[in-house]
Amino acid sequence: MPSLKELSKREDLLSAGHRACAGCAATIVARQVLLAAGKDTVVGCATGCLEVVTTIFPFTAWKVPYIHNAFENVASTVSGVESAYRSLKRQGKIEKDMHFIAFGGDGGTYDIGLQALSGAAERGHRMLYICYDNEAYMNTGIQRSSATPFGAATSTCPAGEVIPGKQQYHKDITKIMVAHRIPYVAQASPSHWNDLAKKVEKALSKDGPSFINVLSPCHRGWRYPMEKTIEIAKLAVDTCFWPLYEYDEGTWRITYTPKEKLPLSDWTGRQGRFSHFKQHPELLEAGQEEVDRRWREIQTLAGIGNLCEMKCEEDKESN
Amino acid sequence: MKAVKDKVVVALTGNDAVAEAMRQVNPDVVAAYPITPQTELMHKFADYVADGDVKTEFVLVESEHSAMSAAVGASAAGTRVMTATSANGLALMWEIVYIAASTRLPIVMGVVNRALSAPINIHCDHSDAMGARDTGWIQIFSENSQEAYDNAIQAVRIAEDRDVLLPVMNCLDGFILSHTLEPVELVPDRFVTEFIGEFQPVHKLLDSDNPTTFGPLDFHDYYFEHKIPQIEAMKRAPAVIERVGAEFEKQTGRAYGLVENYHTDDAERVVIAMGSTCGTAKAVVDDLRDKGEKVGLLKIRSFRPFPYHKVRKALAGAKAVGVLDRAVSFGSQGGPLAIEVRSALYDNAKVPIKGYIYGLGGRDMPAECVEQAFEELKGVAADGKSSDEIGFLGVRE
Amino acid sequence: MKAKGWKELAIGGRIDEAGNAEDFETGSWRTFRPVRDESKCTNCLMCWIYCPDSAIAVKDGKIKGIDYEHCKGCGICAEVCPPKIKAIEMVKEGEEQEEEQE
After folding, report:
1. What is the pLDDT of residue A258?
2. What pLDDT, on the 0 to 100 scale, is given for residue C102?
3. Size of interface A-B (CB pairs under 8 A)
């Protein structure tokens, strides 16, 4: 795992001049992933923010081979590219070792692209799927996705007088990918660049599919000042809303434990999409319970916690 | 059947014949999803893969949408790619079918024609291919299993021609051709290898030393300009289809063009059709000719690009034309084929036309129905006017 | 950049000039510009790894400067510069007259 200094000697494979919003985490994620992956990488990208801002004809910010096909199919598109590579390699027509990385937003991953992702994972293609999760369909105007956190306001589930924001908890896509029993699954954040880079390297070393869910704060949709993107990502991690962990060939590991687990309100309180929590403290409470539940689950899986203990505590409280 | 050293006649279903052609083409990648009546095509090809008869990387995707998506990825990566589907499978991949053509990827797809739902029906009609007629794919229709086999081979050459670089649909009637045994003359393996040649990629997504971006976003300032080359490529396609057909004929003795003129030269009444019904129509033409009637069949092989000039030429002396459509274009003046023919004849307005719909959902098209059409065309010829009424052949009222 | 006619376009919508987005100057988006005090900078490279626009130039592990042709002024670099160092300050465009190297 190279140091930051060594990483800085590598060529940035996402050029400047893309049209992402100032302060966009998705492009930070893409940069960091490509620095870890290197130039012999074919990138597929689902329709979405990252794809749109980087490839407005006649400009492209990608300095690696890149393909965009449609919204819901980056996993199957990259399956095809990887299969072609496999075929040519078998025929002795290509020798170079190459990486195949599919980028999809939460829309193209959790929702419309889930089938293609699941199929690709099941078939065992040697590819890494990176979800840059900005927790809504951002590019089309901040519509809710199944990744949108409980209670958040979006343009299709606004905090209204009768219905205060999203009524469902966000899908645990990372665990869904673990259920595919692929060699490597992880959760990461651009705020923890070292952890992310290590995970990318590890994923690319596996002889099979891998999946990394990377939190990608969006100041437009989440409503915070643009310069705070990295801080907001860090808070998501430190509140354990977005735990950093990995599932590495059957072994669960928490890769970063916050020194102090901060209350969820430290994160939600900084974002306009949760501003109605003031009038609806019950939403924050429910959100906090779910964070605790999932964090406890991860700790149990990683062998350092016990779900039964939590249940016993709950029973004690109610008695 | 692992190797064909010399040409040989074998009894094969249409599905098996196309699978055999695919074995001989030996593509780098096939990504496909099963759907009746294409399934046995896949099964046969799967046997070849499992037995090591082909070098193909066979990607068993989880849906047709992913089949075409993977095909697009593989083709952009610079490999020879084939696939096959039917009906709702084609409909499901519709979005990506457009993308394959606009990205100029020479993918060859067998389309085992089947009716689109609803109601769900697994039998033959042309509604699937017709729904895709504006996608920018070349669409070739096969009359019998021999043609399905021959077309699969030619399709690879047509698609990859530098003047074209468009994907090609090789259409064969579901069940009627796909599942019926017919004698098919196979060409030797080495003929196919030589005929299609080593794949020379135009697109090289895997070349990380010269990285390329595929699938950019166009605003209103570029989308239109990107469509023109596609249109131009399709304009060049007829010449390529004919050239490849002529070359194929030299080697096999079987002629292939954009159309087939069956006794149209001096025909007064001509019926136009595509697919397996052409075989039936030819038999009817023979019978009626024996009785002294001047009738003919104009078989359309290339539906896209549509051979307007050939149609005009073939029908120049006709007194009445009956167009047999195995698909509906709701709200239109006739079925898709009838509309095209009408358009082709607009400048030669003297030939009256009547459009017919037949065979939807696998409804059999017996000789009697073709005879009925020819019979009705007598009245059309006498009237000297095109009929606005669409005739329905073989349906119960 | 003059818009191309259809005859000049690469086939199938391809863009064969990798990274040519560099020709598009997003620097005009800025309201505030980051100004780096070289004397305070310890080359920790935090600004570099967190810049969304690849707009911080590094050479031999040292910060060379900020690419003002592309920097959008998001301010992340100033935020992530360690609190004890604070080598980057966000200054309103036009208020600082000094010329910045790249």
Report:
1. 96
2. 43
3. 168
CATH architecture for segment(s) C25-92: 2-Layer Sandwich (3.30)
Is residue B334 predicted with pLDDT exceeding 80? yes
Query: Is residue A287 classed as helix, strand or coil in its secondary structure?
Result: helix
Q: In angstroms, what separates the C-alpha of A189 from chain C's closest C-alpha?
A: 12
Cis status, amide bond into B305, omega within 30 of 0: yes
State phi, psi for A37 to the nearest 5 degrees: -85, -40
Record the tokens describing residue B197, joined without a space.
Answer: 């040649």
Residue A313 has pLDDT above 90, yes or no: no
Instruction: Pick one of 3.40.50.920, 3.40.50.2000, 3.40.1280.10, 3.40.50.150 as the CATH number of B259-393.
Output: 3.40.50.920
pLDDT score for A311: 66
Structure confidence at residue A77 as a pLDDT band (50, 70, 90): very high
CB–CB contact C11 B216 (8 Å): no
* Beta strand pairing call for C88-92 and C32-36: antiparallel
Of B106, B204, C54, C52, the residue nearest A65 (C-alpha): B204
Which residue in A82, A88, A98 is closest to B28 by CB distance?
A88
Flag whether pLDDT at A83 surpasses 80.
yes
Q: Which two tokens stand for residue A119?
A: 């199929």
Give the residue from A37, A109, A24 showing the smallest Cα distance to A66: A37
Q: What is the CATH number of domain B8-252?
A: 3.40.50.970
Does residue A22 contact residue C29 with C-beta atoms inside 8 Å?
yes
Share of chain A above pLDDT 70, in %: 96
Residues 275..314 of B with a Cβ closer than 8 Å to A: which? none
Confidence of residue A288 (pLDDT cuts 50, 70, 90): very high
What is the C-alpha to C-alpha distance for residues A64 and A44, in angstroms, rounded to an integer? 10
Whether the CB of A79 is below 8 Å from some CB of chain B: the reply is yes
Considering only alpha carbons, which residue of chain B is nearest residue A38? B208
Shortest Cα distance from C97 to chain A (angstroms)? Answer: 23
- State yes or no: pLDDT of A319 exceeds 80: no
> Which chains have 3 or more CB–CB distances shorter than 8 Å to chain A?
B, C
Give residue limits of the domains in chain B: 8-252, 259-393
C21 and A16: CB-CB below 8 Å? Answer: yes
Mean pLDDT of B272-286: 98
Buried b (16+ CB within 10 A) or exposed e, A160-194: eeeebbbeebbbbbbbbbbebebbbbbbbbbbbbb
Please tell me whether the peptide bond between A58 and the residue prior to it is cis, using omega within 30 degrees of 0.
Answer: yes
> pLDDT tens digits for A89-122?
999 999 999 999 999 999 999 999 999 999 999 9
User: Where are chain C's structural domains?
Assistant: 25-92
SS3 state of residue A265: helix
Contact yes or no for C53 and A230 at CB 8 A? no
> Once rounded to an integer, what is the mean pLDDT over residues B354-376?
98
Q: Do B65 and A116 touch (CB under 8 A)?
A: yes
Helix pair B336-345, B308-315: axis angle to 10 deg: 70
Q: Which domains does chain A have, with CATH numbers?
A: 4-318 (3.40.50.970)
The verdict on A5 touching C (C-beta cutoff 8 Å) is: yes
